[in-house]
Design goal:
Number of helices: 5
Structural class: alpha+beta
Oligomer: single chain
Order of helices and strands: HHHEHHEEEEEEEEE
Shape: flat
Radius of gyration: 21 Å
């Protein structure tokens, strides 16, 4: 699971999975769905901060050290559904305000109710919290290097590792085409709590496989051997929560 701060919680495909008419409505009404996803994320961030403030004002368990912050929140299924439905509510609110079409108003109200439902499920389940959050890695810098890998186009991604060996979300892949060479990978600026990183490579974004057997040291460059690992661990979506933190039962406005 990714961290809330890693980037968009939901994608357009997630919204289309809940509403098959989304693409048509967005096209007809000139609605930027990507922008609605970003606005929904901003709104959820504000509401999550308020939740965390109330949560942190309650007594902490004896075993817990530190207070959860937005950077520690993990995207659990209820949180993702909340974001998806909030973004859809925004899309249909925009469509209704443009055309005053009752069909759009019905969809707006439907997704508002679904967003409220997902929020309540999040409160019931608790916020997923990472004790040592490791953020998503940036797209790596990949260049040609001396070697003799099979010629072709390769997709390369990386992921940070924290002290507990937990792996953050993998980066948006870099793409490189090589001939009569190998390739080298630099992972970019590491977060303070990273202790190493992993590299994944493949002939497509869906076929990337971990190439390093041991964590790569921070600051080191990975030069891909001529032999490519074709089977093994694949890029992950990020950390699982270390614990679920009960959230105050507060009714949302609206």
């Amino acid at each position: 699971m990714a961290l809330f701060m890693d980037g968009p919680v939901s994608r357009i495909e997630d919204l289309m999975g809940q509403d098959s008419q989304l693409s048509e409505v967005a096209g007809v009404e000139y609605i930027d769905v990507t922008r609605k996803l970003a606005l929904a994320q901003d709104e959820l961030g504000v509401e999550l901060k308020a939740l965390l403030t109330r949560l942190n004002s309650t007594a902490q368990p004896l075993w817990h050290t530190g207070q959860p912050k937005l950077a520690t929140v993990v995207v659990t299924p209820p949180l993702k559904m909340w974001h998806t439905f909030r973004a859809l509510e925004m899309v249909y609110a925009d469509a209704y305000n443009s055309q005053l079409n009752d069909r759009y108003a019905g969809k707006r109200d439907q997704f508002h109710a679904r967003a409220q439902w997902a929020y309540q499920k999040l409160v019931e389940a608790g916020l997923g919290i990472a004790s040592d959050p490791i953020p998503r890695a940036p797209t790596p810098n990949v260049t040609a290097a001396s070697g003799a890998m099979p010629d072709g186009t390769y997709y390369v991604t990386t992921a940070w590792i924290n002290r507990a060996g937990e792996e953050g979300a993998s980066a948006v892949p870099a793409v490189i085409t090589i001939a009569s060479s190998s390739l080298s990978v630099r992972a970019g600026n590491a977060p303070p709590n990273a202790t190493g990183w992993k590299v994944y490579l493949g002939g497509s974004a869906e076929a990337m496989v971990q190439q390093n057997s041991l964590p790569i040291a921070i600051g080191d460059t990975w030069v891909q051997p001529n032999t490519i690992v074709a089977a093994g661990p694949v890029p992950g979506s990020g950390q699982e929560p270390n614990y679920l933190r009960p959230a105050p039962r507060v009714i949302q406005r609206g």
